[in-house]
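ARCHIVE CARD
CATEGORY: sequence design from structure
SOURCE FIELD: tokenized fold
FIELD CONTENT:
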């Protein structure tokens, strides 16, 4: 990494942090509440403000070079931890490499993490990519958030958004709008519990994994107004929903579900449209449908526009001499940072013997490195 004289300041105040994220046009997964959810479920989280030392300290968050909410996941000894920045850093991509160099130096000095993994909210081919490469980052296929996605431009009119849909999709949306279904945000914890039941049932039918219910309750609790759930109600019962995380600029789809009755009524079409228009009315300028794969759910998402978006993907910076051990022997451990993987804990546990074998079989020169890391780990308590 190049010499970087930027200052890094941990932020411990929620209002200050969120004001910074919003002022710099940040993603909702960089908001305080999202980090708090992660902190309740096995991560350590810190929020780092990066500033040019020449900047006026009283000029407010707009003068910051950037910021990053960093989540740390412990790894088996001697790897210590993995540092992860979800849809960050926040700030101008032109200065992102400087920001991340400063963040990486802080992480290395204070945490000793084996690597820093970042997934910026940039389009593929952004000028920031060349700067990351120059700073020592490399792109990895071990993605956490899916870079192939669909992002709607909410500055377009509702007529323009509707015109971009497939013809049958428009017809289903309009049919919903003429029906007796009610589309609105859920408002009570009792309604939240019904949504969670609906989500579990959807997951069982579709065959995807979910977190325990307390995880979703914590999103509702800690993100608050930044995590609206828009649902379709039939006689007061939710039959389809879309769960969103949102910042001032960006709406990011987290989860969705539909009951058999909702499928029959095509309520999953109307509720998507309700989510788009709700976020547009709230002032968001972009709506990210969060990931496209080759599956039925993605096929459904693609009906709402006639384009796809490719984000820059996942970038990784080695921070430890033991990074080759991590890269070679820890593919399962990487899964602890992915979404809704019920086997994540088992994967981490199963990776421990692989790490021990890799370390035990290393060249003699590597043994001194391991001894050094062991000494650091004992002093730091990590």
């Amino acid at each position: 990494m190049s010499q970087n004289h930027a200052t890094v300041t941990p932020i411990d105040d929620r209002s200050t942090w969120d004001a910074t994220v919003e002022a710099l046009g940040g993603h909702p997964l960089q908001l305080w509440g999202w980090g708090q959810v992660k902190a309740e479920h096995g991560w350590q989280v810190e929020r780092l403000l990066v500033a040019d030392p020449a900047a006026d300290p009283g000029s407010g968050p707009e003068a910051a070079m950037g910021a990053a909410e960093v989540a740390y996941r412990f790894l088996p000894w001697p790897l210590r931890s993995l540092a992860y920045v979800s849809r960050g850093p926040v700030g101008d991509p032109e200065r992102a490499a400087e920001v991340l160099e400063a963040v990486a130096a802080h992480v290395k000095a204070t945490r000793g993490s084996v690597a820093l993994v970042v997934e910026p909210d940039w389009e593929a081919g952004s000028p920031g990519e060349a700067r990351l490469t120059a700073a020592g980052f490399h792109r990895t296929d071990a993605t956490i958030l899916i870079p192939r996605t669909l992002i709607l431009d909410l500055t377009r009119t509702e007529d323009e958004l509707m015109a971009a849909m497939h013809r049958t999709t428009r017809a289903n949306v309009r049919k919903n709008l003429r029906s007796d279904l009610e589309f609105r945000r859920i408002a009570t914890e009792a309604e939240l519990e019904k949504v969670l039941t609906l989500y579990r049932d959807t997951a069982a039918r579709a065959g995807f994994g979910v977190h325990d219910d307390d995880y979703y309750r914590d999103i509702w609790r800690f993100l608050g107004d930044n995590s609206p759930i828009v649902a379709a109600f039939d006689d007061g019962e939710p039959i389809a929903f879309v769960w969103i995380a949102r910042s001032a600029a960006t709406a990011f789809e987290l989860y969705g579900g539909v009951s058999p009755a909702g499928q029959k009524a095509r309520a999953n079409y109307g509720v998507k449209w309700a989510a788009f228009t709700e976020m547009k009315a709230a002032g968001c300028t972009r709506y990210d449908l969060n990931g496209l794969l080759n599956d039925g759910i993605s096929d459904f998402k693609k009906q709402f526009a006639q384009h796809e978006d490719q984000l820059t993907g996942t970038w990784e910076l080695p921070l430890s001499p033991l990074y080759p051990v991590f890269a070679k022997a820890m593919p399962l451990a990487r899964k602890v940072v992915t979404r809704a993987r019920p086997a994540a804990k088992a994967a981490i546990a199963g990776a421990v013997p692989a790490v021990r074998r890799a370390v035990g079989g290393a060249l003699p020169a590597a043994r001194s490195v391991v001894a050094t890391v062991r000494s650091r780990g004992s002093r730091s308590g990590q």
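CARD ANNOTATION: The chain is about 40% helix and 20% strand. The longest strand covers residues 237-246.
SHELF: design records, drawer C
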